[in-house]
Amino acid sequence: MKFDKASVNRGDAYLLLTVIIWGNTFPTAKYVLGVMPPTVFASTRYLLAAFTLMVVLAWREGLKLPQRRDLLPLAGFGFLGITMMQLLWTNALTLSTASKGAILIATSPIWAMILGSLRGQRLSRLAWGGVLLSFAGVFLVINNSLTAITVGGGHIIGDLLFLAVAFCWALFSVLSPPYLTRLGPLYVSGWSMLFGALLLAPAMLWGWDAMQWAAMGTGHWAGFLYTAILAGALGYLFWYEGINRLGIARSVIYSYLIPVFAMISAVAFLGEHVSAVQLIGAAIVILGLVITRQATTKPPPA
Fold first, then answer.
1. Mind listing the pLDDT tens digit for each residue in 146-205?
2. What is the DSSP string of the chain?
3. Closest CA to 121 of 129, 133, 112, 131
4. What is the pLDDT of residues 216-272, one digit of tens each?
5. Residue whose C-alpha is closest to residue 12's, from 234, 245, 256
6. Phi-psi group of 63: left, alpha or beta (phi > 0 → left; psi -120 to 50 → alpha; rest → beta)
7. How does pLDDT run across 77-95, given as a tens digit for each residue?
8. What's the mean per-residue pLDDT of the chain?
9. 20 to 30 A from 170, CA-CA: which of 61, 88, 130, 259?
10. What is the dihedral of CA 215, 218, 221, 227, to 10 degrees?
C-alpha cells in the first residue's frame, strides 16, 4: 500500500491530535468528576457524544439504519465499549489517579493478544515475553515500590477497575474487525456508541439527586464538553482518519504516547505525583507492548 507525502503528514497530524485529546481526557474527566457523580457524567457525556457522531455519520455517509443481522452485534459492541467501559472508567477515576489509569488502560493490546491466543492465534516466545514484561510493569505501577508489597491498599480497587476497562476494550478490538471492515469504522462507531449510550442512560438515575449543579463552574462545563465532543466523538473520527492515511503498522506508535500525555497533563493540571517507580513501571509496560507488537507483526519465515 503506497502513501503520498501529503497524506502521511495529515495522518500524523490526525493521530497526534487524537493522542493529545485522549491523553488529556483522563485529568479533565477526573476534574469534572469532582462535582458530577460518575453515573451522571458517563451517561450524559455519551448521549451527547453519540448525537455528535451520528450527525457526522449522516453528513459523511448518510443515515442508513443497520440491517437486522447487524443490530445485535452493534448493540453488543455498544454495551461492551460504551456502557460497561464507561461505568468502569468513571468509577475507577474517582478511586485512583488519572496518571495510573492511563498506564493501566494502555495494557489493552496485551489483553487482546491473550484473547487472540485463546481464539487460536499462536504467539511466539518473544511475544509472550513482551506480555509478561508488560504485566511486570503493571505490578510496579500499582505496587509503587521496589522493596515492599503494597498492592493490598491505596487505590487497588480503582486500579483493578482500570484493568477491567482495558480488558473490555481488548475484547471489543478482537470481536469488531469483521464489522469494521464490512460496515466501516465510522458506521460501527456511530451506531454502537448510540446503542451503548441509550443502554447507559438509565444509570444517571442513580446519581442525579447527588448532582452538584451549583458547583458546576465554567471550567467544569468546558471539561464536560471536551470529554463528550472532542474525546468521546471527534477523537474516534480523527483516529480512524489517521489510520486510514498511515496504515495500522505506522499508527501503532501513537497509541504508546497516550499514557505519556496523560501523565504530563495529570501532573501539570491536577498536581498528581508520579513516583520514579511508577515511571519505571510505565516504561516497562510500553516496552512490553512494543516487543509484543513487533513479535506478532513480524512475517513468518519462508
1. 777 666 555 789 999 999 999 998 898 888 888 988 998 889 999 999 999 999 999 998
2. ----HHHHHHHHHHHHHHHHHHHHHHHHHHHHTTTS-HHHHHHHHHHHHHHHHHHHHHHHH--PPPPHHHHHHHHHHHIIIIIIHHHHHHHHHHHS-HHHHHHHHTTHHHHHHHHHHHTT----HHHHHHHHHHHHHHHHHHH--SSS--TTSTTHHHHHHHHHHHHHHHHHHHHSHHHHHHH-HHHHHHHHHHHHHHHHGGGGGGTGGG--GGG--HHHHHHHHIIIIIIIIIHHHHHHHHHHHH-HHHHHHHHTTHHHHHHHHIIIII-----HHHHHHHHHHHHHHHHHHHHHHSPPP-
3. 112
4. 999 999 999 999 999 989 988 888 888 777 776 566 677 778 888 888 888 888 888
5. 245
6. beta
7. 999 989 999 999 999 999 9
8. 86
9. 61
10. -120
Q: Which three cell numbers stand for residue 236?
A: 474516534
Cα(164)–Cα(114) distance, integer angstroms = 14
| Residue recorded with cell 505525583 | 273
Q: Which range, of 1-5, 20-24, 109-113, averages the lowest pLDDT?
A: 1-5
Residue given cell 501529503 in the structure block: 6
Is pLDDT of 296 > 90?
A: no
- pLDDT given for residue 108 in this prediction: 85
Biggest CA–CA distance in the chain, Å, is: 67
Contact (Cβ atoms closer than 8 angstroms) between residue 52 and residue 235: no
Residues 89, 162: Cα–Cα separation, whole Å: 6
What the block records as the C-alpha cell of 284 is 516497562
